[in-house]
Amino acid sequence: MKPTILAISDYYAPAVKAGGGHLAIRNMVRHLSDEFDFRILTADCDLGETQPYPNILYGEWASIDTAQVRYLSQSERKMGALAQIINSIPHDMIYLNTFFGMMAVKTIALRKLNRIRNKNILVGVHGEFYPQAIGYKHLKKQVYLVATKAVQMYNELLWHATNAEEATQIAQHLGVHQNRVKIASVLPAPLTDLPTPSHKQANELRMIYLSRITPKKNLAGALELLMKVKVPVQFDIYGTQEDMPYWDKCQDVIRQMPSHIQVRYCGAVTEQQIELFNQYHLFLFPTFGENFGYVIQESLLGGCLPLISTETPWRGLADKNAGWDIPLSSPEEWIRIIEAVYAMDNDTFSQWSQHAQAYGIQIAHDTNRIQANRDLFRFALKGLS
């Protein structure tokens, strides 16, 4: 009989506004369900929404991929009700898909108060302690960290880091011992049928930004780079307007854009993004930090060359002829690459595009990542005394 993992995530499919966190646990399900039985508790609405998803059947399990998912109403996400629901579900361990998310905060508090059965709890922080992420709403987060450390809220919890840097951040911010932290890289999405590379003429460039519109993702930085580009380009923006003051700042830059740079806002998108990327030549993404970056993998698989910052795990792209990762401190290099891609003819672009897809496929087939995630859950199921 397979061990049952009760995964608690503020957001899950069909969420489209919540970034990559919910994709991380969904891809775990897709890759690991042959060994583990996943049960998932999640909110009944998307990020920033109060209207529930359509056709929710409360109190029942819905089958998504190979997991059983239960959507919780706002009242069911309150402390007392959440404790009752957790205790009613047979499980061998709990996986929290976030540290600062409200359902994770409540679950950790319930365990401290002995309101839920004493099961091993594994917490995945998914980039939440990177400087740019923890700097967002910094005071509120620091008050929470100080208060919870004072009452030893994290005693006996286990931790999932996606790389060595994140393991160090967990130790620094939470004071947990190294033997309670396990490293396992984020799992990529399973492959679908890939489109053929987009056609490109010389002296033509269609560019895309696709991510949440927040300071961390740095759309404003992308727009400021384009202000200095001397060749005509089309730049389309896709993403949820999550931070309206920040979006207003971006619009101010757009209004000052020179006439040869055409900028459009095209709205939010669903997770079917590989085909969308295939319509573009260059993905402009000067992010301040990603612990994986699913959108970068989708760009590669769509044959759209990523031009990204060095603040992601996707490094050495130019060595693979698959794209570019450039320091944020080198704006002139970003502009040079944009203008070089504009000049590419179809033969040259197709070669790069095919290399990008090949690299995306290589990562999707990385069995070492999958094995590391299997070992992660085996580690958590065993626990530590």
Describe the 3D structure.
The chain has helices spanning 21-32, 79-88, 102-112, 131-134, 138-150, 164-174, 219-226, 244-255, 274-277, 294-301, 331-343, 346-364, 367-382, and strands at residues 4-8, 37-43, 62-64, 67-72, 93-96, 120-124, 158-161, 181-183, 206-210, 233-238, 261-265, 282-285, 305-309, 324-326. It has 385 residues and is of the alpha/beta class. The protein has two domains: 4-188 and 366-382, 3-Layer(aba) Sandwich (Rossmann fold); 206-364, Glycogen Phosphorylase B (Rossmann fold), CATH 3.40.50.2000. Strands 3-4-2-1-5-6-7-8 form an eight-stranded mixed beta sheet, with helices on both faces. The protein is globular. The mean pLDDT is 92.
Spatial separation of the terminal alpha carbons: 24 Å
Query: Do you know the CATH topology of the largest domain?
Result: Rossmann fold
> So what's the overall shape?
globular
Mean pLDDT comes to 92
Q: How much helicity do the residues have?
A: 25-40%
Biggest sheet record: 8 strands, mixed
Low-confidence stretches: none
Number of helices: 13
Number of domains: 2
Run of helices and strands: EHEEEHEHEHHEHEEHEHEHEHEEHHH
Tell me the structural class: alpha/beta
* Superfamily (CATH H level) name of the largest domain: Glycogen Phosphorylase B
CATH architecture of the largest domain: 3-Layer(aba) Sandwich
Number of strands: 14
- Radius of gyration, taken over Cα atoms and rounded to an integer in Å: 22 Å
Residue share in β-strands: 15-25%
Strand order of the largest sheet: 3-4-2-1-5-6-7-8
